[in-house]
Design brief:
By secondary structure, the chain is of the alpha+beta class. The chain has helices at about 15-20, 110-115; strands at about 30-40, 45-50, 55-60, 65-75, 80-90, 95-100, 105. The structure holds zinc ion (ZN). Zinc ion binds next to loops.
């Protein structure tokens, strides 16, 4: 029998997805993670929105997801240097650690302050 409907593909796949997304672990209320970074070269702030459901790369143990990892290349719009953020998450997509090269992590407040100081930011 050659059923080609998506639900009919090779058993196991759906099972796996169900385990990945169902799993009993409650999802965070907000699927977005906001990163605020500042370019170490020119000091420009950059805001990056990470979709915790789509942007993370799963890391597998024997057959289960042990955690997630995210590599994000970030570029500010002033000097256009590339920054690279690496984040590590546990299997519930909770952040465990973050590192960045070419810039530094700042808080949202710091980012907003820096944005306000931008000479070419139009106040709305
Ligand atoms: Zn820069």
């Amino acid at each position: 029998m050659d059923c080609v409907c998506p639900a009919g593909v090779e058993g196991g796949g759906m099972d796996f997805l169900r385990r990945l997304f169902g799993g009993g672990a409650r999802r965070p209320a907000d699927d977005a993670l906001h990163l605020y970074v500042r370019c170490s070269h020119c000091g420009a702030p950059v805001h990056v929105r990470i979709n915790l459901r789509n942007d993370l790369l799963a890391e597998y143990g024997d057959d289960l997801v042990e955690g997630y990892r995210l590599s994000k290349e970030i570029m500010d719009d002033r000097c256009f240097r590339l920054m690279r953020a690496e984040l590590v998450f546990d299997c519930n997509r909770r952040e465990l650690e973050r590192t960045i090269t070419g810039g530094e992590f700042i808080t949202r407040e710091e980012s907003e302050q820096l944005t306000r100081q931008e000479p070419n930011t139009r106040p709305d």
